[in-house]
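tl;dr need the bound structure. longer version: we got a ligand (flavin mononucleotide) that a collaborator sent over and nobodys looked at where it sits. i said id run it. heres the input, straight from their email, havent touched it
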Amino acid sequence: MLWGGKHYSTNFYCFIGWSLQGRGFSPLARGRKLEKPEETAVPIHELLTNRWSPRAFTDRSMEQGKLMAVLEAVRWAASSNNVQLWAFLVVQKKDAVAHDAMLACLMDRNKSWPALAPVLILTFVEPIWTEQDRDNATAVHDVRVASAMMPIQAEALDLRTHHMAGIHHDVIRAAYVVSEEFNAVSAIAMGHQGTLDLLTEDKNRARESNPWTRKSLDEIVLAGTFGTPAKLAL
Ligand SMILES: Cc1cc2nc3c(=O)[nH]c(=O)nc-3n(C[C@H](O)[C@H](O)[C@H](O)COP(=O)(O)O)c2cc1C
């Protein structure tokens, strides 16, 4: 049995837009904020069903309290042995030079759309647990878990995020004089979601309108031997 999440009426119109235009963007959707229709296998919290990763951000600046709250959520993420071997470098569009400098750290496919976002963040990890003088095998996992807190808190504040692995590691190391113990992991764009017409590239407008899909629970949840679906049922 499938359960709908929220926003049936909004989603209904998104569906119409998609069915009219296939994978492209629809005139119906062009001038408004897209929401992603979802059909979860069982009901889950609306912060999770509402969250998605848009590319269209408005140029509205982010309230400092909201930015701090998102970073505070990151701070309280779990990490192996609670060592928190991570760092987050934040720039805001109101500092145009710093914002442009971080854009220069992003790969070409991530060049045009993140330019709209009022906040850009780079995540870093320290893979060696210096106090114990040994590798921390979970360090990258931990920084990703911490980064995953960001979209949830952002959603609660009517903000959206978009994570990017497409970054230039060498450019980042030089630009920010990154100490040798740390490695960059990803970039994150954050802000208020905007309308489709803010995206200048056709391919990004098309990607923005893509349906929101996931593998089924049967494909990812196993039981007994590996490869055997758990076949959970209500
Ligand atoms: C670790 C990570 C790296 C990603 N890298 C990129 C990227 O470089 N460029 C991009 O446009 N999207 C990137 N994404 C966004 C994903 O494509 C997106 O999260 C995925 O399609 C699921 O969509 P949703 O977040 O809207 O649910 C990345 C997401 C994650 C979690």
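gonna send this back to them w/ a short note. Residues 52-53, 110, 163-166, 186, 212 surround flavin mononucleotide (CB under 6 Å).
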